[in-house]
Amino acid sequence: MSSERLLRLMLRLEGARRVTASRLADEFGVSVRTVYRDVAALSAAGVPIVTESGHGGGVRVLDGWHSGLSGLTSDETTALMLLGVPGLARELGLDAESAGRKLLGVLPITVRENAAGIGARIHVDVPGWFHRDDAVPALRPLVSAVLGGRRVRMRYRTREARVVDPLGLVTKAGTWYLVAASGGRVLSYRVSRIVSVTETDEPATRPDDFDLAAWWRDATVRFDRALLRYTCTVRLSPTGVRRLADVVGTEAASAVPGATGATGPSTPEWTAEWTTAELRLEAEDVAAWQLAQLPGHVEVLAPRSLREAVGAYAVAAAELNSPPLTEPSASSCADR
Asked: If you classify domain 3-61 with CATH, what class do you get?
């Protein structure tokens, strides 16, 4: 049972005098039986629903009853969409806490107690552990322009001011990006690098078929591919194949499919089939560091300079971690 559908059903019934179960089923894309189950669930939760059979009958809420959700402001309604993402509503200048209090206040007591219990026991910290948040003073005026459909005049880094059509905002790992149309192209701008921004009175031009999420996915793939300019040939053990994406990234690992059939070094432990693959990575120093994370599971075939660099990492690790001639005493370890 979908809690989102229950909330939508409650709001739908609140705004209607009477509606048939079959019509509700069509509107919500479910069966009539599902509608009756949802109605029963709302009734059990304390929503005063009246069902009337026969000609002209249907489902409605008791006359004079209101959920109170209509008292939410526009910003609070938007903030409700972000309640599960701590910090985002605050950065956008939206009062998620106020919206949450209003929502809890009008929910039936059993639902309210359950929601409060979950909130006290589950916390989601969205930004990465090693990410430092950017200062984004330009974010709030951009939010106003994006939601209001207005063009903005902005200056990015040290470049001259330009007028752009804001199409949306994206946050990735705690970093905000503006997606905007400029000069016939759609580009992304890191919000922390926008020096100044002013909302204009001109309406922004937005393509009817523009899909922000789809554009961002495609742009991310294009960006990742543009970085992969260094070509190398390697042999990978089955374990190396499985772990390759973890050390070089999914895009680099899948850029060029490898041909199978080669075997590993002629020692008993290397009897499994190895894979020969041509990879596209960022640069030689980056490739050496990444491939060194697969000790014993990767052999660089070309270029020779990369093979030597990966080997140097292995030699350094072996020298640093070779067993000492004498075992240190417990006291000497404790003194370190």
From this structure: mainly alpha
Instruction: Give which of 173, 297, 314 is closest to 244, Cα–Cα.
Output: 297
Distance CA 318, CA 329 (A): 23
pLDDT at 163: 95
Which residues, other chains included, contact 203 with Cβ-Cβ below 8 Å and sequence gap of 6+? 149, 150, 151
Strand 175-182 relative to strand 185-190, pairing: antiparallel
Collapsed DSSP state (helix, strand, coil) of residue 257: coil
Q: Domain 228-321 carries which CATH code?
A: 3.30.70
Choose the CATH number for 139-220 among 2.60.200, 1.10.10, 1.10.3470, 2.30.30: 2.30.30
Residues of the chain with pLDDT under 50: 129, 256-271
Which among 273, 244, 245 has a CA at the least distance from the CA of 260?
A: 273
Tell me the two tokens of residue 162: 């330009």
